[in-house]
Design goal:
mainly alpha; 96 residues; globular; Non-ribosomal Peptide Synthetase Peptidyl Carrier Protein, Chain A; 5 helices
Length: 96
């Protein structure tokens, strides 16, 4: 994906699923089969805080959206791939 497309088009939860699988090397996970509203942690994908940090770095590099470790909204932001995509799109729209 070119930087221009990444900077102007909305981010989909499915796109984030592919990004997460690639960034975290989740070899046994098919991003096309992932439940986009399932929890990223615990009973969902079972990610941990280090995974969250890695995802945050990739999102900042790809989309220019900074996600801070101490943000009290992180629980809601990282609740699911859909909530993460919604947050990225909201921040990018505010930056435009």
């Amino acid at each position: 994906m070119s930087a221009l497309i990444a900077s102007t088009s909305a981010v989909s939860a499915r796109e984030l699923a592919v990004l997460v699988v690639e960034a975290l090397n989740l070899e046994d996970t098919d991003p096309q089969q992932m439940d986009l509203t399932a929890s990223l942690f615990e009973d969902g994908l079972g990610l941990d805080s280090l995974d969250m940090l890695e995802i945050s770095l990739v999102i900042q590099q790809r989309y220019g959206v900074k996600l801070k470790a101490g943000d009290p909204a992180n629980e809601a932001i990282f609740a699911s791939l859909q909530s993460l995509a919604d947050h990225i799109n909201t921040v990018r729209a505010a930056q435009a």
